[in-house]
Amino acid sequence: MKKQKRWVIVPVTTAVLLALAGCGGQDNNTSQASNTPTSTSGEQTQSGSGGADFSNTSEGNNTAAGSVNNEDSSEGTSTSAGEKTGTQGQSSMNDVIQEIRSQLKMKDAVLPTSFALDKGKHLAAAIPVNSSDAFKVNFYSVDQSIPVNDASLTSSTNAPDVLAFYEVKTYKDPDSSGIFPDTDLDNIPDEMSVDLGHGIKGMAEGAAGSQYLTWKEGRWTLQIRSVSEDKMNNPGIAKKMVEYLESHTLPAPKDKGFVNVEYPSGGKTVNVTILWQEGKQIHQLQTNQVPNNALGMVASVK
After folding, report:
1. Confidence of residue 159 (pLDDT cuts 50, 70, 90)
2. How far is residue 295's CA from residue 32's CA, in Å, rounded to a whole number?
3. pLDDT digits (tens, 9 = 90+) for 68-91
4. Are strands 193-195 and 257-262 parallel, antiparallel or unpaired?
5. What is the pLDDT of residues 35-63, one digit of tens each?
6. Residue 19 pLDDT more than 80?
7. CA distances from 162 to 101, 144, 198 (A)
8. Structure pTM?
9. What does the pLDDT read at residue 38?
10. What pLDDT does 157 receive?
11. What is the DSSP string of the chain?
12. Is the dihedral of CA 243, 31, 219, 49 positive or negative?
């Protein structure tokens, strides 16, 4: 991503996309857990926050990428969060979310509420930033239930597996923050048009050794970037994301939402950054989980 990207708006003709503004359909909370934002089933991306400046929360750049299996399984599964966790695990997860809420200083703060944890694993969290106008929560997968902000979560040795970083910041004027890229382009040339299903067309283009696929769903812009020589199946990944969003609803942003999926050289790791504006607040989630798991975390935000 060293070279400037071309952002595009792809006309969306699908009727099932989201009434008014959100992205996706019926809301089913999702996400899969693993090591330092690692992916358990394939695609991954390096970090990319769409220009967002969350510099006062340095942990946002610590999403270490994990290794994956093969590209065929890399797009992520539609496993609903909680399917893997079970009733008891979900109950424990709810306790952690409730404890986080009780500690946050921001009024009416919303959080991801569901993560798919491997059997025997528990959700843990630390709150490195906590004020009335901004907060950040780091989510972890651990072997035993521990309190929020437990000292073991910041240990320099035997660090726990990171699931995701989630933060919310309040701006005086979010529209002038420069966080969201310009996506105001239309009319995709036939040779660059990609049918992603459900009436959605994407635009494929290449630049400086990278290949990009960009499309629109409601007020959301979604983009996949990979290294050209890796010959990643960007359309295949995008189709699985589009299909997933037919049954999972992302928050309805005030004006803009951006899903940025990036694969570094080799295509074996991924970093997914999801940003959206709600009133004067900008929400951001970063993870090295596969794209559909990242979408599921955001779909569970409430």
Report:
1. confident
2. 10
3. 333 333 443 333 443 455 555 677
4. unpaired
5. 435 443 333 333 333 333 333 333 333 33
6. no
7. 20, 15, 34
8. 0.74
9. 41
10. 83
11. --SPPPP----B--TTS-STT-BSSS---B-B--STT--SSS-------TT---TT-GGGG---------GGGTT---PBTTTTTHHHHHHHHHHHHHHHHHH--STT-------BPPTT-EEEEEEEEE-SSEEEEEEEEESS---TT-GGGG-SSSPPEEEEEEEEEE-S-GGGS--SPP-------GGGEEE-STTBEEEEEEETTEEEEEEEETTEEEEEEEEGGGT--HHHHHHHHHHHTTTSPBP--SS-EEEEEE--TTS---EEEEEEEETTEEEEEEESS-HHHHHHHHHT--
12. negative
Helix H, strand E, coil C: the string for 59-112 is: HHHCCCCCCCCCHHHCCCCCCECCCCCHHHHHHHHHHHHHHHHHHCCCCCCCCC
Structure tokens that stand for 156 in this block: 């320099």
Q: At which residue do the structure tokens 């071309």 appear?
A: 6
> Which pLDDT band, with edges at 50, 70 and 90, does 25 fall under?
low
Average pLDDT of 7-35?
43
Percent of the chain topping pLDDT 70? 69
198: nearest Cα among 8, 13, 11, 9 = 13
35 and 159 in contact (C-beta within 8 Å)?
A: no
- State how far the Cα of 185 lies from the Cα of 1, in Å rounded to an integer: 20
Task: Read off the tokens for 248.
Answer: 């999972």
